[in-house]
Amino acid sequence: MSHPHTRSPQHDSVAGPSVVWLATGLLLAGLGTVLLGPIMPTLLHDWRLTDQQGGLLLASKFVGAFLGGVSVPRRLRLGVLAGAILSCIGFAAFALSTGLLSGAAWLFVSGFGLGQLIASSNIVVGRRFTSHTGSALSLVNFFWSLGAVLCGLIAAAVLPRFQLRQALLSFAAMFLLTGIGGLMQPSKEAAAAPDLSPIDSAQPPPQFLLRFGLLLFLYGGLETCITGWLTTYTVRFSDTHLLGGQSAIVLLWSALTAGRALSSAALRIIPEPTLQRLGMALSTLWIAALATTSHGPLLSLYSVLLGLSLAPFFPTTFALLIESRPTARAAGLLLAVSGLGAALFPWMMGFLSTQSGSLRVAMIVPLALALILLLLSAVPTRNSQPG
User: Fold this and answer.
1) How far is CA 133 from CA 4, 125, 217, 255, in A?
2) What is the pLDDT of residues 53-108, one digit of tens each?
3) Cα separation of the two ends of the chain
4) Which of 159, 206, 353, 387 has the most crowded Cβ, counting Cβ within 10 A?
5) Using one digit for the tens of pLDDT, what is the confidence trace for 268-291?
6) Residue 73: what are its φ and ψ, rounded to 5°?
7) What is the 3-state secondary structure (H, E, C) of 88-150?
8) Within 10 A of 164 (CB to CB), how many other CB atoms are there?
9) Quick check: 336 and 115 in contact, CB under 8 A?
């Protein structure tokens, strides 16, 4: 029996802010993750950037997110707090930036904070809720998606009326308040959790972890290609006025948010691998449709269908990973790999768009990613190790 004043490894693995503060932090992280998509046209205009340079801004933030996830601490509550503080610093300084170099540098810092916050929060939730893990992760990531929805709505409402700098400074302050709130109100359920078998023992085989790293790497690139460039794509190719291009991204994230809630319910009766494959098959279809239309109503419809289809992939994949009981560092590394994909592939889209002269041609990048993910998801993902 452990000493009453000694924290066990099991407690360290689930301790942290209460669910309310974790959800609030993920909501803000959702806002921060997709922030560049809605404001990209403004930045390209004000800073006189090419699409390729805009892609570098996306890359800087997601390289930071990768390194933030890689460095997630064993005491996950410290990762949640550090992520909130670094996100505050990064976005506040980005608000004061005036060009590509300084903007990219501070987006790297904000990305590092987001990587710590998202990875630590998801691992805590996955470990606290050992029953119906995929359902719990879908539900908590509903708030991340809600933040993404609010980002598009806020951009559509704020950019025509207020300075971007003031909005970003206010946004940065919210991270600090959330970090302090989570520190002051830890989870009572985690404190009372019984000690289970050591989480950091009996690691899954390396090839199993490598497979999940590849899935998350490609999916991070796919989702960010769509969310990072959809507003710009709509502005250039829609034959109708859609709220300055924000309508499509708002619809996409609204559908993805609703899809996360629906996935939470569906995963109580449908196995994670089945829902994972079905969602990616439909996503491939809707990306192809999106890339071949300029009709405003169809763009809106395909954005909704794509959001619903993408919704299950991350929570189902991460739930399958958590079931294999990796260490916090290993889980954080694999989750962070999605940030590396989010850095590489949107930049690749911007590069291809600049070289070909058409962002529509660059849509081949997310389409190829979806096809590869569909093929990979057809391979069984369950850990074959004995429990």
Assistant:
1) 29, 8, 21, 22
2) 888 888 898 788 888 888 888 888 888 999 999 999 999 999 999 888 999 999 99
3) 23
4) 353
5) 888 888 999 999 999 999 999 998
6) -80, 165
7) HHHHHHHHCCCCHHHHHHHHHHHHHHHHHHHHHHHHHHHHHCCCCHHHHHHHHHHHHHHHHHH
8) 15
9) yes
Torsion of CA 115, 118, 120, 122, to 10 degrees: -140
Q: Is the pLDDT of residue 221 over 90?
A: yes
DSSP secondary structure string for all residues of 320-366: HHHTT---HHHHHHHHHHHHHHHHHHHHHHHHHHHHHT-HHHHTHHH
Are the CB atoms for 118 and 26 separated by under 8 Å?
yes
Span 10-193+202-377: which CATH code? Answer: 1.20.1250.20
**Which tokens sit at 245?**
């291009």
Which two structure tokens, joined as six digits, stand for 20?
Answer: 């309310």
Rounded to an integer, what distance in angstroms lies between the CA atom of residue 24 and that of residue 20?
6
Scan for tokens 């809600």, then name that residue.
Answer: 146
Query: Residue ranges of the domains in the chain?
Result: 10-193+202-377
What's 195's DSSP letter? P
Phi, psi of 18 (to 5 degrees): -65, 165
Tokens in use for 222? Answer: 């796919």
Distance CA 236, CA 359 (A): 9
Assigned token pair, 51 = 């699409």
The kind and range of the H/E element at 281 are helix 272-290
Binned at pLDDT 50, 70 and 90, residue 12 comes out as low
Q: How far is it, in rounded angstroms, from Cα 62 to Cα 73? A: 19
Are 339 and 62 a contacting pair, CB within 8 Å? yes
For residues 246 and 231, is the Cβ–Cβ distance under 8 A?
A: yes
Amino acid letter, residue 335: L
pTM, rounded to two decimals: 0.73
Q: Are 128 and 190 in contact (CB under 8 A)?
A: yes
Rounded CA gap, 179 and 24, in Å?
A: 10
Residue with tokens 């497979």: 211
**In sequence order, what are the residues at sequence separation of 6 or more whose Cβ sits closer than 8 angstroms to the Cβ of residue 192?**
none
Closest CA to 67 of 127, 118, 28: 118
8-state DSSP, 5: T
Closest alpha carbon to 164 in 264, 42, 50, 265: 42
